[in-house]
Amino acid sequence: MSRVRKRVIQMRTKTTQDRVRGYVFEEMQVCLLLFDIDGTLIDAGDAGVGAIRRATADLYGDQIPVPELDVRGATDAALARKLLPAMGAEVNPGSVERLYAAYLRRLRERLEEVNPEAGILPGVCDLLDTLKEAGATLGLLTGNVEAGAWIKLERFGLADYFSFGAFGDEHPDRDKLGPEALAEAERVHQARFHPGQVVVVGDTPRDISCGRVIGASTIAVATGGYALQELSDCNPTLAVRSLEEQGVILDLVSRCSLGKVSDSGTREQAI
Predict the structure, then answer these.
(1) Co-location of 136 and 213 in the same domain
(2) How many CA atoms lie within 13 Å of 24's alpha carbon, on the beta-carbon side?
(3) Would you say 80 and 143 are in contact if contact means Cβ atoms under 8 Å apart?
(4) SS (H, E, C) the chain
(5) Is residue 168 within 8 Å of residue 142, measured between CB atoms?
(6) CA 93 to chain centre
(7) Rounded distance, CA 66 to CA 192, Å?
(8) Pair type for strands 198-202 and 217-221
(9) In the β-sheet with 198-202, what is the strand arrangement from edge to edge?
(10) Which of 7, 119, 218, 263 has the highest local Cβ count within 10 Å?
(11) Are residues 131 and 195 in the same domain?
């Protein structure tokens, strides 16, 4: 494999961003973007982890300590497989469904609690509006169980941007979700996307890996649990500090629409 070249992209001025948006509108109709949720679109203010802890206490009592969980980029199916044995329960369809039901009930409660840390992350609404206006197809590629994903998006007013996705209750291995997302995009939109026309957006190395498995370009955003340099070290197609950096993001999306970039191509880091 040829050595990956990294080039530093200076932050675009507003004039440059306007120019990028002008030609993107004509070229994005053949591009599919798959978004992670937590740490990428929203900061749920620890509502998810809190809901997991309350759910396990509801089902198994609060005498058994909940193990430490690294939820960054993990699927809920993988978390269930770790949690249930720690609670002394077998992993089977019934126990998993009971855990999900208790979690979803507690998640709704947690999201209704006042939390100043929770909210939509910087640049998200403006970017989604721009992509929608340009005709790009937007989907979800998340470790959340499907019901939990929609609960979170509805709570923060983002659900209407998305019509389909691949979710963390479909498979414990996040790398298996990419093909599911492509199949669902084809089913819902009656269109088949070439891997070079697909962009996966997320905040963890697992998002980058998931995108690479399907041959997609990847945008790593440092608004979650990983610093920009940590994400850049995983060689995404583009690494940005936040989704406010629309210029370089739209430039990449436009090039993907035209088939001018692949995951094996030049890596970029916005500063």
Answers:
(1) yes
(2) 26
(3) no
(4) CCCCCEEEECCCCHHHHHHHHHHHCCCHHHCEEEECCECCCEECCCHHHHHHHHHHHHHHCCCCCCCCCCCCCCCHHHHHHHHHHHCCCCCCHHHHHHHHHHHHHHHHHHHHCCCCCCEECCCHHHHHHHHHHHCCEEEEECCCCHHHHHHHHHHCCCHHHCCCEECCCCCCCHHHHHHHHHHHHHHHHCCCCCHHHEEEEECCHHHHHHHHHCCCEEEEECCCCCCHHHHHCCCCCEEECCCCCHHHHHHHHHHHHCCCCCCCCCEEEEC
(5) yes
(6) 26
(7) 43
(8) parallel
(9) 6-9, 267-270, 238-240, 217-221, 198-202, 32-35, 137-141, 165-166
(10) 218
(11) yes
262: phi then psi, degrees, rounded to nearest 5:
-140, 165
Residue 124 and residue 174 in one domain: yes
For the chain, give the percent of residues with pLDDT over 90. Answer: 58
Residue holding tokens 């200076």? Answer: 10
Residue 116 in tokens: 């100043």
Residues 230 and 101 in one domain: no
Q: What are 59's two structure tokens?
A: 């089902």
Sign, CA dihedral 10-12-16-18, equals: positive
Higher pLDDT, 64 or 235: 235
- How many structural domains is the chain composed of? 2
Q: What is the pLDDT of residue 117?
A: 80
If asked whether residues 39 and 65 sit together in one domain, one would say no
Tokens of 106: 């507690």
- pLDDT tens across 44-92, in order? 988 888 899 899 999 998 877 777 777 888 888 888 898 899 888 999 9
Contact 249, 9 (CB under 8 A): no
Residue 10 to residue 12: CA distance in whole angstroms: 6
- Do 247 and 261 share a domain, yes or no? yes
> What would the two tokens of residue 133 be?
């206006």
